[in-house]
Structures
1.
Amino acid sequence: MSGVWVFKNGVVRLVENPGAEPLDGSRQGSSSNVRRKVLVHVPTNEVITSYEDLEIKLLSLGWERYYNDPDLLQFHKQSTVHLISLPKDFNRFKSIHMYDIVVKNRNMFEVRDM
């Protein structure tokens, strides 16, 4: 992983391709040379295209859904201290969220360029 670390509103995040994503976090118009990231469920080689798909995969891996925060989708695994927090809107699901899922579910998910 390479890129630029950006600090904004008290949050630090990694911008993997600084030319493709503005530093203010806003979305640019689609560009043909910009590769977007996708989350892939490795055992089935399935690209995760919705939170419904992701929830099915996570529940099968022992994750439980938390309903504490109405603005987030959260999952917790009882045997660990891990918590996955995702924006409620799938359109705001970015590579930082994908990598969080990959790290907490080794060998089950990958982030790939599309």
2.
Amino acid sequence: MDHMSPRLRAFLSEPIGEKDVCWVDGISHELAINLVTKGINKAYILLGQFLLMHKNEAEFQRWLICCFGATECEAQQSSHCLKEWCACFL
């Protein structure tokens, strides 16, 4: 876990529960606003979309970029975060 950002480490330290979407590593304040505006206000909702895409990081990243205006870096960080969470908890 030494190579992980503090934010990723914190996210992976416990189940998602009712965490807001902004807890996901890679989700900036601006991206969180875009997600919340379209009904994705909780981390578990974003995780659900990731799972519906069969944990396909490239597809999930394209979706975040095209539908919510995520940067490539944000999309990569958030998909990595959700992938790592799945590896720890599923």
